[in-house]
Specification:
This protein is an all-beta fold. The protein is 0% helix and 49% strand. Strands 2, 4, 5, 6, 9, 10 and 11 form a 7-stranded mixed sheet that branches. Strands 1-3-8-7 form a 4-stranded antiparallel sheet, with no helix packed on it.
Length: 124
């Protein structure tokens, strides 16, 4: 059975940093693309960013570009999201996702694996 577990969320002030982690167990995802989505209260889930299997290619939503950075450690089956200069509008539940197909990591895509989410709250 595959488990996807996010960690690292919390309550911070605007301008602070957080690093989220996503670890997959039950299968190797070294050939999978991985990504993050987020959902704020009363809003639709939105794409945050994704990273290809090797870590050599990334894509970010415009709202987080230049503030958030993705990386991964395939030996640990883990992906990281470094979030800097956090803003109150970054407040959301952050979900990790993994899929063999890069293009499927998008809102509405058919994604193989999801985590349960981790709360990030940024106070002003």
């Amino acid at each position: 059975q595959v488990h996807v577990v996010e960690s690292g969320g919390g309550l911070v002030q605007a301008g602070d940093s957080l690093r989220l982690s996503c670890t997959v167990s039950g299968r190797t995802v070294r050939t999978y693309a991985m990504g993050w989505f987020r959902q704020a209260p009363g809003k639709e889930r939105e794409f945050v960013g994704k990273i290809n299997w090797s870590g050599g290619t990334t894509s970010y939503a415009d709202s987080v570009k230049d503030r958030f950075t993705l990386s991964r450690d395939n030996a640990k089956n883990t992906m990281y999201l470094q979030m800097n200069r956090l803003k109150p509008e970054d407040t959301a539940v952050y979900y990790c996702a993994a899929d063999p197909t890069w293009v499927d990591l998008r809102v509405g895509g058919t994604i193989d694996y999801w985590g349960q989410g981790t709360q990030v709250t940024v106070s002003s």
